[in-house]
Amino acid sequence: MLQSMRSAAKYVWIVLIIAFVGGFLLVDSSGLLGRAPVTTNTVVATVNGEDILYLTWESAVANLDQQESQRLGRGLTLDERRELEDRAFDELVNEILLRQEYERRGISVTDDEIRDAARVSPPPGVEENPEFQTEGQFDLSKYQRFLTSPIARQQGLLLGLESFYRSEIPKQKLYDQIASDVWVSDARLWQLFKDRNDSASVSFVAFRPEAAASATSSVTDADISAFYNKNKALFERPGRAVVSLVAVERAITAADSAATLTRIEALRAEIVAGADFAEVAMRASEDSGSGAMGGELGRGTRGRFVPEFETAAYALSEGQLSQPVLSPFGWHLIKVDRKRADTLDLRHILLRVQQSDSSAAATDRIADRLAAVAAGSSEPAAFDDAATELGLPISSLVVNEYEPLSFAGRYVPGISAWSFSGVSVGESSDLQDAPEAYYVARLDSLRDGGVAPLADVKDDIRRRLEREAQIKALEPTARSFATAARAGDFAAAAAAAGQSVENAGPFTRSALVPGLGQFTEAVGAAFGLQTVGDVSAPVITRDGVYVLRLDAFTPADSADFELMKPVFKLQIVQSLKSERVQQYVAGLRDAAKIEDDRKKIQASLRRQADMLL
C-alpha cells in the first residue's frame, strides 16, 4: 500500500510541476550569482510597476525546458529555448496581471475553499493515474485516502496542492465574473447550426485585375502616406538579420549506407530466428516515436508514407516481414500486422544512414578547426580566415526574428535565436551541431523589429492601392454581365463577356472554397441568394469582382438540430466563455504598462562572459 502511495505521490508532483530547483541550478552553474552586474535580483521586466526578477524568469524557463526535454527525449536547440523563454515570460506577465485584477475586484481564496477543492477537484491529469482508478475509472475515494496518508504529508505534496489551488481558485472566480452572463438564444443557436450545416453550390465568373488592361497609376504620394498613417499596425515587422554561414557537411558515402544495411540485416536475422519484432523495435529503432511503441505506425490507407516505403509495405502479406527497404529516412524493416484491402496495420524498424566512424572523425577534425579559429570570435576576419583555410564556401542568408533559419532545404539549429540574443555585428556564433552538418554563422547586420519606415513599404502600399483601384474599375463590367446573366443564360452571358464559368460546391459558410476562398465576401454572397437560379450583384473582394449564380442549396436539418441542441448549446456556450476570457486577458495586457528589458540583459550577459574569457 505504501509503495502505491509513493508511486501516486511521484505522479502528483509531476502533474503539479513544482520544480523550482532547476532554475537555481541553472543560475548557480552559469556563474551569474554575485559575480557581475546581472544577478538573481536583476529586474528583467516590470508590469504596471511590479517587477519580474531574473531568477523568477529563469526558474520558469527551466521548468518548461525540463518538461519539453522529457517530452522530446533530447536537449532543446537555441531556437526551441527561445520559444520557451517567450512562453515563460508571457505566463509570468499574465500571472501578474491576473493577480492585480484579483486585488482590484477583491477576489480572494479561503483555506476552507482550498481544502474543499483539493478533496473533490483533483488537479488536471491526476484522474489518469492508475493508482487512483478502479476498473479503469477514476476512484475519488482512493484519491481522498491518498490526501490523508502520511506519504502526502511527509513529501510536502499538500503544500504543493495548496499552492496550486491558491492560484487556480481566484482565477476561476475571475473567469466566472467575466463570463457569467454569457448566454445564447435558441434563435442564435439555430443560426450557428445553419452556418455549419447549410450547403450551397454555385457557378461564378471572376473578374480579376490580372485579366484587365493595365492603366496608368493614379496613386499619389499623399494617398500612400494617408494609408500608411491609418494602417501602421499592418506594417509591424519582426527583427531582421543578415548572417554569413559556413557548413561542414556530414557527407554520407556508399560505404556508410552498406554498413547500415549490414546492421539492419542482423536485426532481421534476429527476428527471423524468433525474437519479438516489438522488442527489437523498442531496443534498436531510431524512429523514437514509433520505436517506443514497438514500431507501431497505426492503421491507415495509401498516401501515408514516402513511395519507396509504401510500395514495399503493400507488397507484403499479413504477418510477413520485409527485406531491408531503403527510403530517404534510412533502412527499414516492415511488418504487416493486419491487411484489409487498402488498409494496413504496420510496424517498422528504422536505422538511419550515418557516417562511419572514420568518416565522422575526419568531419569532426574539420569542425574542431572551424570552432578553434572562428566560433565565438568577435573579430569578423576570423570567420573569413577559417572559411579560406578549410575551403568552405560562405553563404549570405536573411534571418527573421522568431523564424528558424533554413539553408539548402534544411533546418539550421540555433542561429536564428543567437542572432537576436544581444550579439554584436561582426561576432561569430558557437559551433552548431545538426544531423546533416556543423554550422558557424557571423552576424553581418541587424535591424530591430517594429513598424517599418514608410520608405521601406512605400512600393508595397502603392501596389496594393493600384490593385484595389483596378478591382474597383472592373465593377461596371461585372454589373453589365450580372444584368445579362439575369436576363438570359449564365454561360452564354459569360462567353459574350469573354469570361469563363467556374463551379464550386457543395460547401458550407465556413469552408475553404476553391476559387472563392474562406470567410470571404464571395462565400457570404452565395448564402445571400434566395432561390436556385438567382444571380448575385457584383461582389468586390481583395482578389477581384465576382458574380455568382446559385445552383443548389441544402438547408440544415431542423430535426438534427433539435436532437443535438443540448450538447451543441453546451459547446457553444463554453466556446463563447473561453473567447470572452481570452479577450478580457488580452485587454488587460493591451492596457498594461510593460517594460521588457530581456534583450538588454542578454546583451549584458554576453559582455560579462566575454570579460571572463
Which tags fit this structure?
about 625 residues; alpha+beta; Chitinase A, domain 3; 4 domains; 4-stranded antiparallel β-sheet; 23 helices; about 20% strand; disordered N terminus
The biggest beta sheet reads: 4 strands, antiparallel
Over the alpha carbons, how many angstroms does the gyration radius reach?
Answer: 31 Å
Strand content: 15-25%
Strand order of the largest sheet: 18-5-20-19
Mean pLDDT: 86
Number of helices, counting only DSSP H or I runs of 4 residues or more = 23
Q: How many distinct domains?
A: 4
Would you identify the regions where 5 or more consecutive residues have pLDDT less than 50?
1-6, 8-36
Shape: globular
Q: How many beta-strand elements? A: 21
The secondary-structure class comes to alpha+beta
> How far from one another are the termini?
55 Å
Helix content class: 40-55%
3D structure, described in words:
This protein is α+β, with helices and mostly antiparallel strands and 613 residues long. It has four domains: 2-178 and 595-612, no CATH class; 199-234 and 456-554, Roll (Chitinase A, domain 3); 239-249 and 360-448; 254-351, Chitinase A, domain 3 (Roll). 50% of the residues lie in helices and 18% in strands. The protein is built from 23 helices and 21 strands. The strands form seven sheets. A four-stranded antiparallel β-sheet has the order 18-5-20-19. The chain has a four-stranded antiparallel β-sheet with strand order 12-7-16-15. A four-stranded antiparallel β-sheet has the order 8-11-10-9, with helices on both faces. A hairpin with a 4-residue loop joins strand 19 and strand 20 (545-554).
